[in-house]
Design brief:
With 250 residues, this protein is an alpha/beta fold. It has one domain: Rossmann fold (3-Layer(aba) Sandwich), CATH 3.40.50.1820. The protein has eight helices and eight strands. Strands 2-1-4-3-5-6-7-8 form an eight-stranded mixed sheet, with helices on both faces. The protein is globular. The two termini are 27 Å apart. One of its GO terms (cellular component) is membrane. It is a multi-pass membrane protein.
């Protein structure tokens, strides 16, 4: 099997507390595949959720690529692999701590993915970049947009952002702070696939681990114009289930 091209920050953050271990930007693998991406019309970057090791991250890219091909999207699909397999995430009594460490790491990765986007756009200014995030991957996207919004030249640098089972808060698309960020950094659209029957988000909401997840009931308030949402009925919270109900892209 051919290696799956991915941007990675594995080993940069401590899985037990979220502390930064290395101040590196990111690394790409395999290097030659990234050289081939220069000049592409567009690329999609798939960002996984919590409890994914490197193999899990790769599996999500393979899944995304397969489904997007089915829908007629023939551009390159690559992955962003980060330290999300936090210590104790599979144990109920440690779930809250594991999630908060995961959130801390996801937020920190915003600058890593943001730097990749800036670097890549410098080499390939005409390539459109779309970001797809599942569950905690939505936090990585939000933090990436927040990082990119700090510089004027990054207006419209991301073509589109797509959230699946998003664990960020439901008021983000309508909030003054984030609404501005979404509108300026994302050029065409932000799409949120939400599922009121998502068992993991329902549980996280009920336990107050994530208060009002965007992926559960959609956005509150008056979201920015570029924001759209689609009600979906995946079998469960897994990305495979969300990919299976995706009917069009982009």
């Amino acid at each position: 099997m051919k290696p799956v091209p991915r941007i990675s920050t594995r080993g940069y953050y401590d899985l037990s507390n979220g502390n930064t271990l290395k101040n590196n930007r990111y690394y790409t693998y395999p290097k030659n595949d990234f050289k081939k991406l220069i000049g592409s019309q567009e690329i999609a970057i798939m960002i996984h959720g919590l409890r994914n090791d490197n193999a899990g991250a790769i599996a999500k890219v393979v899944l995304a690529k397969k489904q997007l091909r089915k829908l007629g999207y023939l551009h390159p699909v690559i992955g962003f692999s980060y330290d999300s397999n936090t210590a104790g995430a599979h144990l109920i009594k440690q779930a809250k701590h594991a999630l908060s460490v995961g959130q801390k790491i996801a937020k920190k990765n915003g600058k890593n993915l943001g730097k990749f986007i800036e670097d890549f756009k410098e080499l390939s200014p005409k390539t459109k970049i779309r970001l797809m995030g599942h569950s905690l991957g939505s936090q990585v996207i939000l933090s990436t947009l927040e990082y990119l919004a700090k510089k004027k030249q990054n207006i419209g640098i991301v073509e589109g952002a797509y959230f699946f089972g998003a664990s960020i808060n439901e008021d983000i698309p309508s909030s003054k702070k984030y609404g501005k960020i979404l509108e300026s950094v994302v050029r065409s659209k932000i799409v949120n696939y939400y599922a009121p029957k998502d068992e993991v988000l329902s549980w996280a909401n009920h336990e107050k681990y994530v208060k009002g997840p965007l992926g559960l009931n959609g956005a509150t308030g008056r979201p920015v114009k570029k924001y759209h949402q689609k009600l979906v009925r995946p079998k469960n919270h897994r990305f495979a289930s969300y990919a299976a109900v995706l009917s069009s892209f982009p």
